[in-house]
Amino acid sequence: LKRLRAELxxxxxxxxxxxxxxNIDRKLFDETVLRRMFVVPAFEIHGGVAGLFDYGPPGCALxxxxxxxxxxxxxxxEKMLEMECTCLTPEPVLKTxxxxxxxxxxxxxxxxxxxxxxxxxxxxxxxxxLLEKGNFSSSEADEHRKVQRQADAYSxxxxxxxxxxxxxxATTTGNDLTKPFAFNLMFGTKIGPSGALTGFLRPETAxxxxxxxxxxxxxxxxxxxxxxxxxxxxxxxxIAPKNGLLRVREFTMAEIEHFVxxxxxxxxxxxxxANVTMKLFDRDAQLGTGIVxxxxxxxxxxxxxxxxETLAYFMARTQLFMLRIGMNSEKLRFRQHLSxxxxxxxxxxxxxxxxxxxxxxxxxxxxxxxxxxxxxxxxATNTSVEAQKMLDKAVEVLQLTVKPxxxxxxxxxxxxxxxxxxxxxxxxxxxxxxxxxxHSNGQPYELDGFSIAPGMVLFTRxxxxxxxxxxxxSVIEPSFGVGRILHALLEHSFSVRKEDAxxxxxxxxxxxxxxxxxxxxxxxxxxxxxxxxxxxDLLTQAGISTKADTSGQSVGRRYxxxxxxGVPFGVTVDxxxxxxxxxxxxxxxxxxQRRVPIAALPGLLRELCGxxxxxVAWKDAxxxxxxxxxxxxxxxxxxxxxxxxxxxxxxxxxxx
Length: 656
Hints:
nine-stranded mixed sheet, five-stranded mixed sheet, 23 helices, globular
């Protein structure tokens, strides 16, 4: 008993404040999202295609509002240079970036049916089921979770051995599986009618920004640091698409490439976010205690948990963006990549993960990619991507230079000797150091297609005064999966009324709500429609998305329909409106109502929706206006029975 209590204490400590559960009525959620046409299967009447979805009217508006807020939060506030690059990408570009050879997931197949599975996800799902159904001690469960957290970091041989150890079979048939093997996720195509040029649908938007770096640098008057941004489609031929928008084959990305001098990764606005507290799941904790730590941005950099200020700055800004659009702060965390997950050139990587009904889902990646991307494109195309910085005063540096041995080079390269010598003499100190390192290891160095062997050059060092420093910039990259963010926001906003578990309410933050305001007539009659039209026109002209519902159904039922779409505010035109030009303004979450002049609606709603700055709270914005009747949750109530359940509304609107 003592041992069990001790293990329980350890488990409770590990889980304290970690937000490990997110429970919703999945069936009701999925049914509402589909019925109200937020997201629907693509080509549904033809049977649909796994991993392809269409956004309906409210989903399209919600997505666009998220993107608009992203552009405002990042592109405008950080003075980023936004581009829109083509989705079709020639093979040489993606060969250079490494995608042709390494953009893969590990796949296994059912040996009988040939059904395909993503190997790491099979392992993760199996361990979830194992922990849910099994009876393990705390230490045993931690060991299983540790394996689970490393699922996408194993080599093919390692993952194959673990699948065998756990006895994992094909989920639908129970048949044996093949050994894991790499599957490239890019969609290939041919560009042009001849079919001679191979291309791909881009798997990310970043490469378009990298290959345009030189023009972007010129546009920015040669100044570094600066950031470029792009919002657009990416395409990945997912092995086993599932979980709605969380694993799809076509998706919208919003990516930032922040170019910075490699040895100067401080950020001028870091003090603005230094006190922002973030939940950090570092690599040591993932392989050890499993405990997520809360730490300010400033402390995380000071302690070396996050590699540098610029990376930490964008992580904090990402968290602030998520809170602005309405995410639950308790269900956000940053997970650091394990060393086996990161590319060899990366300095540090953190994923913003959001807790959903499917568990923790990676929604935003933050990576310090060093100089890799610009360097490989420069080398492949013989294009300079160097930036330069003017120093305040000249400094003395030790410069390494290369002197060609013209006799040896002439004998080796003959008619090409002039081109080789010119290329060697044009090298800067950094490139000279690369050749010296290769030669010290007895290796030749490839330069513009020529192999420079040891003994072909001499190296000299001399002191030189310089006032301009040249460098290839490093890249800090935040990459946002818009579809995943939208799905998480739908889940975090999903709720039901306490008095009726079937009455769904999407509690979207007003700033991203697809429809900001509904307009209703209390009863049918000739007096009300012209006023409803006038209110709708007035709000539309003020840039407030509005939907009128003048059907013959009761106001309570129309409120319920609006709640399912997440409409935060509702205007009701009634008999008093005809007399004094005032209307009832309803707030979705509290269901309280205020009496407001029609002329005041545009200004009030823009404040309430944060369209001109920060969102103004309902109680503050409406403090000067009289409350009407009682809330829908208390006071005189009338019940209406529909095919979806029992709905409640005030029996009457009574002025207080």
